[in-house]
């Protein structure tokens, strides 16, 4: 039938799927909280999917709310996106070091993805990007975040 | 210890674009050529290893193994296979082991699909951020390394330039045209700070090795395995302990050199896994050839290029020779050619070669020290 608009098939961006052990992480993210685990035996804080302390092997760990403050540890600016990310290029893939110590891979929001804007060690604050039924923790420049 | 050696080695006849061969066919072709290289029949093979599917490869070849290693930890898997084969031969579990690689990285013929698993660790904590392809993850430590040591964009580009100079002398290299630092920096970005020539090729091809001990290890073209190591780190790149140091490579190299009773100063030739241009820098430092932060100056000054003091990636590497996806097999192949005196870019008097492979970004590393200990 003529006149039917040709739909450009947009590939969806990938969503995570929680496991029983990571469900609290994603539930807390949906509530606007970045979650970390802390070992009740040795007090190590870690960004981990499984209830097992990477420092001492203890299975007695619990979730706690991280401050959400971090510094920019390293990044790349992707110019050749895959799938749904093709339309996002250029975009930053970053690794941030959280105030509590652990590092995590994340995205950057609220700032141009350029080498000039993204300065290593700049202070960042967690923000959340809706992705399907999930809220993804991403990071924005700390001064740009309203309390 | 009983000497064990790589007695046979060969690559597929064609590298690059091989759209008429499946992954299985590439493995089998490489195997048949490696067997022919050392005059060995499939009936003599009693051990099989490979990262694709050694069951299929063995069956097609008519090999009936009593020792099997299907380790797949990424691009360095074949270095681990060699190490495991050496141990198996010394233990009497096998006499003659065939290690094969074939990958249709470009044409994707008969390639097992790799659907993303959104509940896996990468599926939850990397892929939602557009971090899946190696150029979005393997590359992540570079900017932190550059800031820490003052490595410049020109330093990084000089890795690609040095290797292209080797590739110019290697007829089988896919990229042989001259390349300058300015050319690299004027090329399109794949993922800042990496330009196209600083990222590996994506090709089809394969290679295979025959590993044996006893009298065979003393054959004229046999290349003894003097030492080997393997190490495992964090599966998620963000949890790599130190972005300025490839700790897995350092650990694997320490074990390999200790077993060989040698050190970096005894090495004449190096193969250093180079899916991206920062890897030879971090690899040379981790293996102890230079102090942390010094590799960039060495490479920029031509120290690893033809005529330099430390020949590195003499086939052109993954950046210019070939990169099927799991490059480690080709690094071993070039080390064997150099030590046999059969390389296109032959390094004079090469007696000891160190080969480093990475797998799954910086998750796994393995090091082989090959050749002859002049003191022993």
From TrEMBL, chain A:
Residues 63-129 form the ChsH2 C-terminal OB-fold domain. Keywords: DNA-binding. GO terms for molecular function: DNA binding. It comes from the Bacteria. The keyword Kinase does not apply. SUPFAM superfamilies: Nucleic acid-binding proteins. The keyword Transferase does not apply. This is DNA-binding protein. It comes from Actinomadura montaniterrae. The lineage of its organism: Bacteria, Bacillati, Actinomycetota, Actinomycetes, Streptosporangiales.
TrEMBL record, chain B:
Pfam families: Thiolase_C_1 (PF22691). PANTHER family: ACETYL-COA C-ACETYLTRANSFERASE, NON-SPECIFIC LIPID-TRANSFER PROTEIN-LIKE 2. This is Thiolase. It comes from the Bacteria. InterPro entries: Thiolase, Thiolase-like, Thiolase_C_2. Residues 230-371 form the Thiolase C-terminal domain. Residues 102-121 are annotated as: Disordered. GO terms for molecular function: acyltransferase activity, transferring groups other than amino-acyl groups.
